[in-house]
Write a structure and sequence with these properties.
- This is Zinc metallopeptidase.
- The chain crosses the membrane at residues 6-22, 122-140, 146-166, 195-222.
- It comes from Fictibacillus marinisediminis.
- InterPro entries: Zn_peptidase_2 (IPR007395).
- Keywords: Membrane, Transmembrane, Transmembrane helix.
- The chain is mostly helical.
- The chain has one domain (6-227).
- It is built from 7 helices and 3 strands, in the order H-H-E-E-E-H-H-H-H-H.
- It has helices at residues 6-31, 42-52, 82-86, 90-107, 111-140, 143-180, 189-227; strands at residues 60-63, 70-72, 77-81.
- Strands 1-3-2 form a 3-stranded mixed sheet.
- Strand 2 and strand 3 (77-81) form a beta hairpin.
- The chain starts with 5 loop residues before the first helix and ends with a helix.
- The model has no long low-confidence stretch (mean pLDDT 92).
Length: 228
């Protein structure tokens, strides 16, 4: 495949993605060393917020690794990495509250999250097939295959775009919970923002890369169609 002008933008977006991942790890490490005044662990914060929102049936479980925190909508369980589960730092309570935000979204049938869940089986299929169709189309110079690949790839891109409001909303909920429940003080909000904003940037960068790749494929497709 030849080098396309759009590749410059993709490279820039990829660099932003690497920088965002660096910021996530850096901010998490920095604010993991700052204890929140409440003295509560991430697990305790998560349990408290879940109970306050009537989600007594949602368990909070530790999971190995770092930054492996997630909410499982199928099993309906909040899983926190061990540093977050057992930690009582600004980073720990921020991440814990964010993941609980997803659980509350699920309970309230938050629109973007509901759409994301409905799309997942389809995207799981199309994202696996699209690369082979695109590669085969370019190698065989078959623009019909490229066109189908573009359509399938667009589902994955749309899925990532839908993920953005889901993550931003979960972070917004996390900040609100932490402040209104008194788990953090005003001077600690800066740390919470640093941790959650850095994490959000990784999703933005990933979505941008995928969107630019899609636009590149579309431009190549129409250029090839005109040349035929």
């Amino acid at each position: 495949m030849f080098f396309h002008p759009m590749d410059f933008l993709i490279i820039i977006a990829f660099a932003v993605s690497l920088w965002a991942q660096f910021k996530v790890k850096g901010n998490f490490k920095k604010w993991s060393q700052v204890e929140a005044h409440s003295g509560k662990t991430g697990a305790e914060i998560a349990r408290s917020i879940l109970d306050d929102n009537g989600l007594h049936n949602i368990p909070v479980e530790p999971v190995r690794g770092t930054l492996t925190d997630h909410y499982d909508p199928v099993s309906k369980v909040v899983r926190l990495s061990e540093p977050v589960y057992y930690g009582d730092s600004i980073a720990s309570v921020s991440v814990a509250a964010h993941e609980v935000g997803h659980a509350v979204q699920h309970k309230q049938s938050y629109g973007a999250l509901a759409l994301r869940h409905r799309m997942f089986p389809l995207v799981n299929l199309t994202s696996g097939v699209a690369p082979f169709l695109l590669l085969g189309g370019f190698l065989l110079d078959q623009f019909s295959l490229i066109g189908i690949g573009i359509v399938l790839f667009s589902f994955a891109v749309f899925f990532q775009l839908v993920t953005l409001p889901v993550e931003f909303n979960a972070s917004s909920r996390a900040k609100q919970y932490l402040v209104t429940e008194g788990f953090i003080r005003n001077e600690e909000e800066r740390g919470v923002n640093k941790v959650l904003n850095a994490a959000a940037l990784t999703y933005v960068a990933a979505a941008l890369i995928s969107l630019l790749e899609l636009l590149k494929f579309i431009m190549i497709f129409f250029q090839g169609e005109r040349e035929e």
